[in-house]
């Protein structure tokens, strides 16, 4: 009793420890999934499958909406966490942190039944390091299949088709091939979104059929076990003989072409005591006389396996689903049989679906991409197409029929061939897929411009560049290592550069165009060895080589406009275009102004030794060497003041005989004036001081004037 009690306690402690360990594992203390009206947590809905713990949840809708709540592990110092995007779901509400306690986000799944290895991946930062954390998910659903036959009678050699009623036909795994050797053989296919059960009896009497189907996504049974087995379809049939004896033929698929029509094909037919040798029988698709000739059957010899070797010559097409074929002696039906007579496998059209595009008959494919390929023609169900050097990753659910086949193919990134042959079994079909190198326009982040300072990325320049120094060289460089990445190929970049040089007032000084610039990916590209390098540009482009007026000869506030664009003829009309403007900025300007101050008020030392105001002057003349200052945030816009030094002819235009106030002074003069452009005559306000040469005294002055800009 004591040992039994200890054993029970040990098991309970182990279970508690396992639950505690499961809850504390990873970066989250607890995870909750809300799907429909149910809540699933790591503490109650964790399954250990494929050597990892997975949160299981039930779904009814292929595109269920799920709200996820994450409670972080307090022992980890998580600074930042993000949900990594995935093609398996669409984010409805992005991840947010609530009440400094838990994270929450909402997503919508995409096709849960067709999704394998479903998981959430989080990137987070802890202890100054970035990490990735996977949260595996295990969706399950209930899938039921029901079978309601109208009657329970079958006839030897007669194929009968019934519909299977199911809650989720996409979740059913089935084989398109017939079973072999059973009392009742069967196969399952899909028609108009419904599952169809085909039955073909082989033995007389009461016969049972049991069909065990499996699901793609499992369900959890009453014992909390994961199972993929759907309740089997079990039914009993009464198998009866036909009015005519059914003779099986060993070949169920006959190809109608010129060779089989004239020379025939050898087949083996069930023997019957009434079947005559060395006789030609007529095969029609109706029991009554006058039916169209489908084929001729010549009985050649009897075999030891109770079969007859025959020569069959087909003349018309026939499908099993169209009904029996009647073996006739003249117009009298003697036996029935059934087989397919279909056209020779021929390809009439091949279409390719690239990711994000529509179906196209352009057979160009690109290294590293995954494509859908559709073949249309006749007799395709008999074919086994092989695509040279491509990986076939097709699923069972892809379209496969007599007239249409669909494949999903992966093109290896390092493929070396330029043409991919398509084979039917080992025979070439004469059809090829063309391997083309990627030729996508890339943003201009691989172009750098250097005009004296450090090189700047062309794509990162916003607005005009105001540059104060002399531009000795103007160089474009190309970092070809940035063009191709292992997971994103762009290929060769075909560029055109337009140059415009404009003066201060917008007048065009020079215009140049540089054509046929080809920049190829560098050796870090997975496809480097396969690019044609003959026309690739390696050296930098010094724009001064293309300009007659060099950049170092340009005047202040001249503008250089550079436009880089893709050659759209190489990219099917698409491509990027970007223009940048470089302005030769100056902070100040030195010039000589002649102005005519009038009504100046002077302050100087009077005869009594005191400072005093002089009388208003008449019109004076000032010649000033002065500095003008540009606005720092505007192009070629002056500030409303100037500062300079020069000569002032005080009362220069007063010609009266008793004028004793005329004098010449050396002055430092400041002026405030309107900032209108291209005005030769303005009326500034003058402030300054200086020294009169005649009176030999210092003075200060203020007053208006007339300014003439030479």
Briefly summarize what is shown.
The chain has 710 residues and is mostly beta strands. It is built from 2 helices and 55 strands. The chain folds into 6 domains: 2-140, Sandwich (Immunoglobulin-like), CATH 2.60.40.10; 145-240, Sandwich (Immunoglobulin-like); 245-343, Sandwich (Immunoglobulin-like); 346-435, Immunoglobulin-like (Sandwich); 444-584, Sandwich (Immunoglobulin-like); 588-708, no CATH class.
Helix content: under 10%
Order the strands across the largest sheet as they lie in space.
21-28-27-24-25-26-23
Instruction: Give me the number of helical elements.
Output: 2
Major sheet attributes: 7 strands, mixed
**SSE class:** mainly beta
Mean residue pLDDT: 83
CATH architecture of the largest domain: Sandwich
- Count of individual domains: 6
Q: How many E-type strands?
A: 55
Strand content: over 45%
Anisotropy-based shape? elongated
The radius of gyration over CA amounts to: 46 Å
CATH fold description of the largest domain: Immunoglobulin-like
Span of the ends, CA to CA: 119 Å
Q: Which residues form runs of ≥5 with pLDDT under 50?
A: 1-25
Main CATH class of the largest domain: Mainly Beta
Describe it for me?
- The protein is mainly β and 710 residues long.
- The chain has 6 domains: 139 residues, Immunoglobulins (Immunoglobulin-like, Sandwich), CATH 2.60.40; 96 residues, Immunoglobulin-like (Sandwich); 99 residues, Sandwich (Immunoglobulin-like), CATH 2.60.40; 90 residues, Sandwich (Immunoglobulin-like); 141 residues, Immunoglobulin-like (Sandwich); 121 residues, no CATH class.
- The longest helix is centred in the N-terminal third of the chain and has 23 residues.
- 20% of the residues are buried.
- The N terminus is likely disordered.
């Amino acid at each position: 009793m004591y040992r039994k009690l200890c054993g029970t306690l040990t098991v309970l402690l182990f279970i508690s420890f396992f639950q505690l360990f499961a809850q504390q594992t990873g970066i989250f203390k607890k995870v909750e999934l809300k799907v429909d009206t149910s809540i699933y947590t790591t503490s109650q809905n964790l399954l250990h499958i494929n050597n990892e713990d997975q949160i299981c949840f039930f779904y009814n809708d292929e595109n269920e909406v799920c709200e996820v709540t994450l409670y972080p592990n307090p022992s980890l110092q998580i600074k930042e966490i993000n949900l990594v995007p995935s093609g398996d779901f669409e984010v409805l509400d992005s991840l947010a942190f609530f009440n400094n306690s838990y994270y929450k986000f909402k997503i919508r799944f995409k096709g849960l039944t067709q999704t394998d290895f479903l998981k959430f991946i989080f990137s987070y930062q802890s202890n100054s390091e970035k990490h990735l954390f996977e949260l595996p998910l295990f969706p399950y659903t209930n899938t039921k299949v029901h079978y309601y036959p109208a009657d329970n009678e079958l006839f030897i050699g007669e194929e009968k088709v019934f519909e299977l009623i199911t809650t989720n036909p996409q979740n059913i795994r089935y084989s398109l091939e017939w079973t072999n050797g059973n009392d009742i053989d069967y196969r399952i296919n899909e028609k108009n979104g419904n599952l169809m059960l085909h039955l073909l009896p082989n033995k007389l009497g009461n016969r049972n059929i049991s069909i065990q189907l499996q699901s793609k996504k499992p369900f959890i049974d009453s014992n909390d076990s994961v199972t993929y087995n759907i309740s089997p379809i079990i039914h009993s049939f009464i198998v009866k003989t036909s009015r005519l004896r059914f003779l099986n033929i060993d070949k169920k698929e006959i190809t109608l072409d010129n060779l089989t029509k004239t020379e025939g094909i050898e087949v083996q037919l069930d023997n019957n005591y009434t079947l005559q040798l060395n006789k030609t029988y007529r095969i029609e698709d109706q029991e009554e006389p006058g039916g169209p000739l489908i084929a001729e059957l010549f009985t050649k010899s009897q075999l030891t396996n109770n079969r007859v070797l025959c020569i069959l010559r087909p003349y018309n097409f026939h499908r099993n689903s169209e009904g029996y074929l009647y073996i006739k002696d003249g117009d009298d039906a003697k036996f029935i049989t059934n087989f397919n007579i279909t056209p020779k496998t021929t390809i009439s059209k091949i279409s390719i679906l690239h990711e994000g595009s529509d179906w196209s008959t352009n057979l160009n494919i690109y290294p590293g991409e995954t494509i859908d390929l559709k073949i249309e023609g006749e007799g395709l169900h008999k074919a086994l197409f092989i695509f040279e050097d491509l990986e076939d990753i097709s699923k069972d659910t892809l379209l496969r029929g007599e007239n249409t086949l669909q494949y999903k193919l992966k093109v290896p990134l390092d493929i070396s061939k330029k043409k991919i042959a398509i084979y039917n079994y080992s025979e070439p079909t004469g059809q090829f897929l063309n391997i083309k190198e990627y030729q996508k326009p890339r943003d201009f982040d691989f172009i750098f411009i250097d005009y004296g300072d450090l090189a700047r990325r062309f794509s990162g320049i916003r607005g005009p560049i105001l540059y104060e120094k002399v531009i000795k060289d103007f160089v474009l460089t190309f970092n070809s290592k940035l063009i191709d990445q292992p997971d994103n190929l762009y290929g060769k970049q075909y560029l055109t550069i337009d140059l415009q040089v404009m003066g201060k007032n917008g007048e065009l000084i020079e215009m140049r165009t540089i054509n046929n610039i080809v920049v190829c990916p560098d050796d870090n590209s997975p496809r480097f060895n396969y690019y044609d390098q003959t026309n690739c540009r390696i050296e930098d482009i010094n724009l001064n080589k293309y300009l007659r007026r060099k950049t170092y000869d340009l005047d202040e506030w001249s503008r250089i406009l550079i436009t880089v664009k893709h050659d759209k003829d190489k990219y099917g009309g698409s491509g990027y275009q970007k223009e940048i403007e470089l302005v030769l900025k100056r902070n100040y300007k030195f010039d000589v102004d002649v102005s005519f101050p009038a009504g100046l008020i002077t302050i100087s030392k009077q005869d009594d030794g005191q400072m005093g105001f002089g009388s208003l002057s008449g019109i004076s003349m000032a010649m000033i060497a002065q500095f003008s200052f540009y606005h720092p945030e505007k192009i070629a816009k002056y500030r409303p003041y100037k500062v300079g030094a020069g000569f002032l002819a005080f009362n220069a235009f007063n010609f009266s005989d008793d004028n004793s106030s005329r004098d010449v002074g050396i002055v430092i003069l400041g002026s405030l004036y309107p900032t209108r452009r291209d005005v030769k005559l303005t009326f500034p306000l003058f402030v300054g001081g200086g020294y009169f040469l005649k009176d030999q005294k210092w003075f200060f002055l203020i007053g208006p004037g007339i300014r003439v800009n030479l």
